[in-house]
Specification:
By secondary structure, the protein is an alpha+beta fold. Helix content is about 30%, strand content about 20%. The strands form two sheets. A three-stranded mixed beta sheet has the order 2-5-3, with helices on both faces. A two-stranded antiparallel ribbon has the order 1-4. The N and C termini lie close together (about 10 Å).
Length: about 90
């Protein structure tokens, strides 16, 4: 990375994820027993080729946003081991 540590650069992905999940939560039916969110355990994709990672995310029903011009993933959000839900967006840097 370039070492940019401006608040908007660092906090923006976290804010997006927080508000995205918050709005998803608020839109959830509260009393519907038929509605189940499918949990996904976030894999470690750091060091993986971006194409391989995107295939993996697709198989887990996750969306992926890529930041950077490289071909190998250097950072991921959320981190490995985090419980996510199908349909959420993963952010990776190359």
């Amino acid at each position: 990375g370039t070492g940019a540590y401006y608040g908007s650069v660092v906090a923006s992905p976290y804010g997006k994820m927080f508000y995205s999940n918050l709005f998803d939560y608020l839109d959830q039916p509260k009393d519907d027993d038929n509605f189940k969110r499918v949990e996904v355990l976030m894999p470690d994709v750091v060091g993986m080729n971006i194409v391989q990672a995107m295939v993996l995310f697709k198989s887990l029903n996750l969306y992926c946003e890529v930041y950077g011009e490289g071909s190998v993933i250097t950072k991921q959000l959320p981190p490995e081991g985090t419980v996510c839900y199908e349909g959420e967006t993963v952010i990776v840097c190359t």
